[in-house]
Amino acid sequence: MDQYRPSRRGVLAAAGAGIAGLVAGCAEPRTESSIEGGSAHEIDRENRADGSTYTDVYEGLIDSVTQIRVLGIENPYTEEEGQGQGSGFVVDDDYIVTNEHVVAGGTEIDLQYINGDWSGTRLLGSDRISDLAVLEADHVPEDATPLGLSETRPVVGQEVLAIGNPYGLEGSMSAGIVSGVDRTVPAPHGEFTFPNVVQTDAAVNPGNSGGPLVDLDGNVVGVVNAGGGDNIGFAISAALSRRVVPALIEDGEYEHPFLGIALATVDRFVAEENDLEEAAGVIVTETIQEPALGALEAADGTVERGGEPVPVGGDVIRSIDEEPIPDRHALSTYLALETSPGETVSVELLRDGEPRTVDLTLGSRPQPN
């Protein structure tokens, strides 16, 4: 959603149709920059309206939210270099969190804070599978205090605020609620999905990517990563960010757990065609790599129901480590938040209608190309 643009004056165009932003590979670390700590312009906090609770939250956080300018992005159509922009926020000392797709493909990444200060950065690490990246800033203003990632999982109806730079309009805020939780959202090109995503009706547009979605206590509920002004936006959850961000700071990368399967939720059609007593769980449609190869059985055929293929004959996973797995969303969330590569999990499943338990040692998810 924060894509190539040909000139500094051009307004960012929305990245295609739908909810996803443009993903363009990984950026190279920038060289040492001389632009840091430029002259600041102060926010006029005198002679103003009373505002609201939202105003108080905004005032408490805005110094820590940055605009990100990414230079050297290649236009895939003309092969000319241009620039993109997005948002980010301070999480610890001089570390800035943003989206991987905001900084991907750039050769230089600069920040501008709300007080007018500019800073160069270097890319510490990025992860396409979670769409998260961490920058180390050359300069962080004194008032830019770190924002905390919420330790409480959001609930539907909770009030939230999105702070960032839509269309390059610095320091913008929109209000809404959490309109969905535990979403599994496809990546822009569909080669994988983002787990445990927070859905919101707070307006988010191109340029909001990488900015914080916060509750009214100022805690970051999620890192905004997709939206198009259609009253539906998405954010990478704080729960997943708390796992990924420290690893990006420390190691420059994050390893995601992997079962090595393709799967589908057991709906009514799947249950009927597989003689299952209830429509619950996930059915294995393909075994891709270890640890599933040789340990789990994939569907050996399909039948058509409602114009769609329905898998028949595969293992049906019902729980992992005694945690119920009612659908694919629950599976992706459990793996993402509760497990790590190298851990052994106990998978309870149905095979040919008979219950059995299989112990699997989780692998590492391959990084997409």
UniProtKB/TrEMBL annotation:
Domain PDZ: 257-362
Keyword Protease: yes
Pfam families (alphabetical): PDZ_2 (PF13180), Trypsin_2 (PF13365)
Keywords: Hydrolase, Protease
InterPro entries per record: Chloro_Bact_Ser_Proteases, PDZ, PDZ_sf, Peptidase_S1_PA, Peptidase_S1_PA_chymotrypsin, Peptidase_S1C, TAT_signal
Similarity annotation: Belongs to the peptidase S1C family.
Protein name: Trypsin-like serine protease with C-terminal PDZ domain
